[in-house]
Amino acid sequence: MTDHLQTIAAAFASAVLSQQHRPLRLRWRPQETRFAQWLLVQRVDIEEAWLEGLQAKLTCVSSDPELPLQALLGQPLGIEMVTDRGGLHHTNGIITEARAGHADGALRIYQLTLKDALSIMEERINTRIFRQLSVPRILEIMLGEWRQRSPALAAAFHFDLHRLENRRYPVREISHQFNESDAHFIRRLCRREGIGWYIASAQPADDTGKPADAGVPMHTLVFCDYAALLPQAAAGTVRYHRAGATEQRDTINAWSRQRSLVPGRVWRGSWDYKAVRVDEVASQNVLDQGDAGRALACVLDDGLIEAPHTADGQQDHLRMAHARMMAHEGRSESFEASGTVRDLAVGHWFVLEGHPDLRGHDRTLREFIVTSLRQQAENNFPKALQDAIERLLPASIWQAEVPGAADMRYRNQLICRRRSATLAPHYDPRLHLPPVHPITALVVGPAREEVYCDELGRIKVQLQGLHAEDHVHAQGAGTTGEDRDSAFVRVSSAWAGAGYGQDAVPRVGMEVLIDFLGGDPDKMVVAGVLHNGINHPARFSHGGGLPGNRFLSGIKSKEIDGARYNQLRLDDTPGQISSQLASEHQHSQINLGYLTEPRHDGHGDDRGEGLEMRTDGHGVLRGAKGVLITAQAQDGGRGRMLERETLLDTLRSLEELAQRLSQDAARHHAEATDLAQLERIRKQLQAWESSEGAAGTRHAAAPMVALDAPAGVSVTSQDTMVLGATRHIDLVSRDNIQLSAGRKLLMRAGELFAAFAAKHMKLISGKGSVQVQAHEEHIELQAARRILLEASEEIILQAPKISIRSRDNTEINGGGSFSRWHASLIEHGTSGQWRQQAAEHNVLGPANCPPPEIPPPPTYEDLQQSDSLLVRLRSHARHGRPLAHQPYTLFKQGAQIAEGVTDAAGRLRIEDHQPGDNSYSVELPNGYRFDLPVHEEISALDQQLAASGYRSTEADAESRLRHAGA
Question: Residues 555, 598: one domain?
Answer without folding.
Answer: yes
